[in-house]
Amino acid sequence: MPEQNFSNHTQRDPYFLVLAAIFGVTVGYSIKHALDYPNGMTIWLVVLSMALLVTVFRMRVYSLRVQDRVIRLEERLRMRELISADFDSSRLDIKQIVALRFASDAEYPALVRKTLDEKLAPKQIKSLIKNWRADFHRV
C-alpha cells in the first residue's frame, strides 16, 4: 500500500459510483420515456427507478454511519489509553473523531486538546497531522 497522507487519504468506492451512475441514467431515461408516452406503466417505472436510486444512496449512508460508530468506539479506547481513563470524549463530534484517527500516537493527545480548545474542523485537524496513521479500510 502507498503511504497515506492528507493529499491522498480520500477513497472512492468504484462499485458504488458505477451503480449510482447506472441508476441515475435509468431515472433520467424513465422520466423522458414517461413524458413521451404517459401512462400508468411509465409513471410506475419512474417511481420504481427513483426508489432504487434512493435505496442505493441510503445504503451508502447507513454503511458510513456504521463505520463512524466503529471509529468512534476505537478512538474512545485510544483516548483512554493515550490521554486518560477519565477523559470526556463527548465534547468531540463524530467528524472530529473520524479526522483524529489519522494522527500518530505521539501527536494524538496534543492534537485532541488543540481540537477541543480551538474547535477545529475535520479538514483543519487532518492538515495539522505530521505523522499520518493510515486507514485503508474506510471507503
Layout of strands and helices, then pairs:
Elements: H1 14-36, H2 40-82, H3 94-100, H4 108-118, H5 122-128
Give structural attributes.
single chain, 139 residues, mainly alpha, 2 domains, 5 helices, 0% strand, elongated
Count of domains: 2
Q: Taking all residues together, what is the mean pLDDT?
A: 90
H/E topology pattern: HHHHH
Radius of gyration: 21 Å
Describe this protein's structure:
The chain is mainly α. It folds into 2 domains: 12-69; 83-134, no CATH class. Helices cover 65% and strands 0% of the residues. It has 5 helices and no strands. Helix 1 packs antiparallel against helix 2 (40-82), helix 2 (40-82) packs across helix 3 (94-100) and helix 3 runs parallel beside helix 5. It is elongated, with a radius of gyration of 21 Å. It starts with 13 loop residues before the first helix and ends in an 11-residue tail after the last helix. The model has no long low-confidence stretch (mean pLDDT 90).
Give a quick precis of the structure.
The chain is 65% helix and 0% strand. With 139 residues, it is mostly helical. The mean pLDDT is 90.
